[in-house]
């Protein structure tokens, strides 16, 4: 298969989701982000730790070694590395060279995820990690989902998550129906993101809300796609009886869900979608958690299937000239924001101007 040459365009000085907190244990785990292979584990005190997954001696992965307290002993020759990446033991050699170390990375836990800062550690402020105000609040319930691996560049998934129009065709069994096909989308742009939205008024409910809302007639429904560069997309969607919400800012009056997509850019041609949802109904019903998870798995696997097929065609047809539609404006601006972030990181004065 030919390769279209699409490269991983992503700023390093940023917090990215690495994995679910529940999956980081005292066992050595392997993860990849931005093409970097990591060994990840918890300290004896329970703190997550990430080191470059390579011994600088013969390049053996540290993940096939052993934990010795909070340090890792390489499984090849026993070199041992502390949690900060410093070598603290070389069997049979009392002198440890100053360059005998591996990179370590700042980590922080929030919203059920371990987040990583791959760039300059001095800039890794946990306050910069995305925060959904409704998460953890008494009138809302959060349910953590899966880690869906998708064989495409993370920006292609970001395109999808800035695009309400596809829902009317891809997700007819869960998140969409034909009533939205001719409804245009609107958007706004700021320095770090794109907000894309539309309302579909006085129309049949989508299958998901028909199931959970017990609506007796038509509804007004909304989709707000809030993309935060470079790899976070939160979709605020819901429904209310037609005419029940006079002010669009009062969406809490209806059934409302935040579908959160926290994307790990793995390498040029793969990413991981860590998804969860936060809702304002059935707050103490674990059965609804599992039923909604099943619905979301159907929908998100539909996205996975089409994105991976597009990836295959894209790599087989390098240089293919695509046409652009009106619905492409927001995704194009999303990519422009990411390109600007990368340019500013490389050379602040060479920044790409905002649109």
Automatic annotation (TrEMBL):
Q: Boundaries of each Rieske domain copy? A: 15-116
> Which keywords does this chain's UniProt record carry?
2Fe-2S, Iron, Iron-sulfur, Metal-binding, Oxidoreductase
Pfam families listed in its UniProt record: Rieske, VanA_C
Q: Which residues form a coiled coil?
A: none
Query: Per the UniProt record, which EC number(s) apply here?
Result: 1.14.13.82
Q: Return the broad EC class.
A: oxidoreductase
Please give the Gene Ontology molecular function terms for this protein: 2 iron, 2 sulfur cluster binding; metal ion binding; vanillate monooxygenase activity
Cross-referenced SUPFAM superfamilies: Bet v1-like, ISP domain
CDD domains recorded: RHO_alpha_C_DMO-like
PANTHER family for the chain: 3-KETOSTEROID-9-ALPHA-MONOOXYGENASE, OXYGENASE COMPONENT (PTHR21266:SF60), IRON-SULFUR DOMAIN CONTAINING PROTEIN (PTHR21266)
What is the recorded name of this protein?
A: Rieske (2Fe-2S) protein
Q: What is the lineage of its organism?
A: Bacteria, Pseudomonadati, Pseudomonadota, Alphaproteobacteria, Hyphomicrobiales
